[in-house]
Design goal:
The complex is a heterodimer. Chain A has 7 helices and no strands. In chain A, helix 4 crosses helix 6 and helix 5 (about 70-75) crosses helix 6 (about 85-100). Helix content of chain A is about 75%, strand content about 0%. Chain A is an all-alpha fold. The longest helix of chain A has 20 residues, at about 50-70. By secondary structure, chain B is of the alpha/beta class. Helix content of chain B is about 30%, strand content about 15%. In chain B, helix 13 (about 325-340) runs parallel beside helix 14 (about 365-385). Residues about 1-15, about 35-45 and about 50-60 of chain B have low confidence and may be disordered. The chains are: A mainly alpha, B alpha/beta. The interface between A and B is large, with 42 and 43 residues.
Chain lengths: ~110, ~500
Amino acid sequence: MQALATLNDEVYFEAAQHLALRVLREAPDNDEERLHHAFRLCLSRSPDQVEAELLRKTLEEQLQIYEADHESAKTLLLSSSPAGLAPEQYAAWVGVARVLLNLDETITRE
Amino acid sequence: MFPVVKEVGGYDLTVKIEDSKIELLKRVTRRYFFQECWSGAGAVALASLLNENLFSQAVDPMAPKKPHFAPKTKRIVYLNMSGGPSQLDLFDYKPKLIELHGKPLPKSVTGGQKLAFIKPGAPLRGTERKFRRHGQCGMEVSEILPNIASCADDIALIRAVTTEHFNHAPAQLFLDTGSIRAGRPSMGSWVTYGLGSEAQGLPGFVVLHSHSRGDVPGILGGPSCWSSGFLPTSYQGIALRSSGEPVLFLTNPPGIQPDAQRQTVAAINRLNEHKLEFTGDPEISTRIAAFETAYRMQMVAPEVCDISREPKHILEMYGCKPGQMSYANNCLLTRRLLEAGVRFITVYHKAWDHHGLTADSDLVTGIEQSCKDVDQASAALLKDLKQRGLLEDTLVIWGGEFGRTPMGQSQNLHNPTQLMGRDHHINAFSIWMAGGGIKGGQTYGETDDFGYHVVRDKVHVHDLQATILHLLGLDHTKLTFRHQGREFRLTDVEGEVVHPLLA
């Protein structure tokens, strides 16, 4: 099933890890602009108000997960993780990247 | 959920060449069309003309639906013997062919018919197999299917099946989808569309594959045979692998725990749902459902698909080989899937194209191996379903896309009177059915002395399909879908229910 592939295939997962790194490297040093940049990279447009709020919520949820589970956070990281960022923060961004790469609008080619 | 004009919020108005190109491209996409360009009731009407199912997105596509009338069966297992099993060596005994072995058929019989590869004047082939009568009904079955033969009193054997296509791919498509043109929904998809699914965390329509030694994997009709065609993709058949992970990518990536996965899927679908509200595109609905199913499958499938959990005597009853690809494994897996609520399962076993060119593909050695591979497990499935009280509302069908000719192919060079194989035959072949609503212990339909033509009670592929749908409580003429301006159905424009087969 395509849904399982985009969620769990190594190739897509690596893409999410790299997308997270790219966003953290390229965007200004605050969550709102990082989320905006990540969204634009995946969907070629800016998020509307509802979407921006949902993204914020997603980041918060993912952060909570990895603050409670340091072991998993460490497993998610690529060797070249950005300096100055705690593992759980980076892991949360991988989570957000994964969500964005799995959106219907990202996946569907028109 | 009307597509409405909204302020085009969120679009960056800074004019860059890349951005304006993107904007231009967007204007020709389907989504943008729905989303931005229309307003009012007229727009809605036009949008629904373009997409008849526009307003169906609120409904879960797999929600159980009532059949047209009271069903006799709830579940279907199609044991699809891909390649064309030789009915004259398995189910339809013709002593006349033994008498006339090596001689050609009279021209009056073949009547200038176009055949697959063989010539009409080719020598006839008598079977070397002994046939015996079985059960109280005295059904005549070949010695190389002893276990299936022992189920005679539960089986309705149809010797008069006909099809119209003598090559594998078109004939398989015809059997599975009702048409030789790829792009039509398969039987399993029609059934799931008509009845929904009660399988939590598993697809409603599952496909399994195996093959005998000497055959290469992959049925020639290909994935079109279990495709949803023009029906929504939720009704697609899902092929499970017989060894290793039942479905690829069922396991989370390292570092992703189950609750993290759940949150991720929820976050994805929240954003998808917002988009759905905005555009009204029902394909998003399908996508949302697919992600939910994927997540639930991760939770449920590993356990259901693990046949090693079965007690030893059950594994032995089927003749399973856990960890390997095998028909027996697939039959046992089928029973587990049925118990978990899967409604339609096709088990393809590719093994029957016995033209006689090699030992693995002839009617002397090859067919014996094919029979060994399926005989025990097919009977075990019937017996297992029966002892669990499932057979009475599960319909089991066994057969392929066509049969094989009374004429022989591939002369044995060391023994010139021996013909090692048979060609494809469309005018008459055999299929059996058992369980859900079928009257067992009967043979239906008859062929001529040569096994060439049907002489009584013909059952065309469309009639078979109509009957299967009927047993599920579906009127094959009423289970339709509007596409490209007309109503389509599995049986196209033909098909009669074969009532004498029913209990």
